[in-house]
Amino acid sequence: MSIENIEKRKTPIFHYGITFFLAATLFVCVFSPDSKNPLDRFRRDWLGAKGPGNTTEEMEKLCTKNLVPPQPQESHDDNFTMMIRKAAMDDKRVILTEVNEAFSAPNSMLDLFLESFHNGEDNITHLLDHLVIVAMDQKAFEKCKSVHHYCYLHEDVGSDLSSENVYMSKAYIDLVWTKVRLWQLILEQGYSFLFTDIDVMWFRDPFRHISVYADLTIATDRFFGNPEDHSNHPNTGIVYAKPTEKNIEVLKYWREARQRFPTTNEQTVYHEIKYELSSKFDLKIQYVSTEYWGNFCQPNKNFTKLATFHPCCLVGLEKKIAQIKIMTEEWKKYKSISLKS
């Protein structure tokens, strides 16, 4: 190949190299955030910024104004996260309850609670595969492991929560507030939860009574006909929530509101702030009729409709156990009659 031909081939390469070098230099001058070049004025005008100021900050605001800022998660045990992941259904729903030593004693609430799934209709025993039981002390944890496969020992508590705590005592209040923190952790991991108190008896699948429109679904002590009406009396013995940014913020706000009402439980605080939650977060709340999620506050023993039954409005563990045993026998009789008919 002649030298002339080589030079002809080199010439366009040389031109391309020079062109690339000039373009790169111009790019650095125009877009370098630290540039003092007179082209800064051009850069601001071209990007749409108005007046003097830090162009980089202006662009960051432009690019992030529609994004939800990342939310720092509270410290949590990876074992709890792993357990939630294992227990969750395919659509990332999980069932959660809490138990302490008093409620896990032989023939106490834990046994009655688990038995109710086996006595229920529609083969609800499979829901136990998606239940995580949070033990509030070591003895409850040992009992849980002997009867169930997803048991988590919650050690980060401020009081001794092993005994039957007197209603509205400090230990009782500490106990009930722990669940709201756990709810928040579950949502932050991207899972929805159905929380149930350990003294709620399950007869049918309660998920059937949860509306898809609602952000938050809550049981009631007293239900007055309209599932969206805040005049219904809420009961946090059964709560369902979706893993949305809105719900995470709602739970944070709920927990922070404890400072305004330091001597009361999470249910009363919710009752005090429910209108705030609805307006501040545009929260869609569903209150479930006591026809389906029943209790002793507004007694209803229509077994053709009941999915769960909660012995709220009864004070004392022994009294609750006695009434639940009566209710369980009545349910078994209903089942035997309905099977024959």
From TrEMBL:
<dbReference type="GO" id="GO:0071555">
    <property type="term" value="P:cell wall organization"/>
</dbReference>
<dbReference type="InterPro" id="IPR044821">
    <property type="entry name" value="At1g28695/At4g15970-like"/>
</dbReference>
<dbReference type="InterPro" id="IPR005069">
    <property type="entry name" value="Nucl-diP-sugar_transferase"/>
</dbReference>
<keyword id="KW-0472">Membrane</keyword>
<protein>
    <recommendedName>
        <fullName>Glycosyltransferase</fullName>
        <ecNumber>2.4.2.-</ecNumber>
    </recommendedName>
</protein>
<keyword id="KW-0735">Signal-anchor</keyword>
<keyword id="KW-1133">Transmembrane helix</keyword>
<keyword id="KW-0808">Transferase</keyword>
<comment type="similarity">
    <text>Belongs to the glycosyltransferase 77 family.</text>
</comment>
<dbReference type="GO" id="GO:0016757">
    <property type="term" value="F:glycosyltransferase activity"/>
</dbReference>
<keyword id="KW-0333">Golgi apparatus</keyword>
<keyword id="KW-0812">Transmembrane</keyword>
<feature type="domain" description="Nucleotide-diphospho-sugar transferase">
    <location>
        <begin position="126"/>
        <end position="322"/>
    </location>
</feature>
<dbReference type="GO" id="GO:0000139">
    <property type="term" value="C:Golgi membrane"/>
</dbReference>
<dbReference type="Pfam" id="PF03407">
    <property type="entry name" value="Nucleotid_trans"/>
</dbReference>
<dbReference type="InterPro" id="IPR029044">
    <property type="entry name" value="Nucleotide-diphossugar_trans"/>
</dbReference>
<keyword id="KW-0961">Cell wall biogenesis/degradation</keyword>
<keyword id="KW-0328">Glycosyltransferase</keyword>
<feature type="transmembrane region" description="Helical">
    <location>
        <begin position="12"/>
        <end position="33"/>
    </location>
</feature>
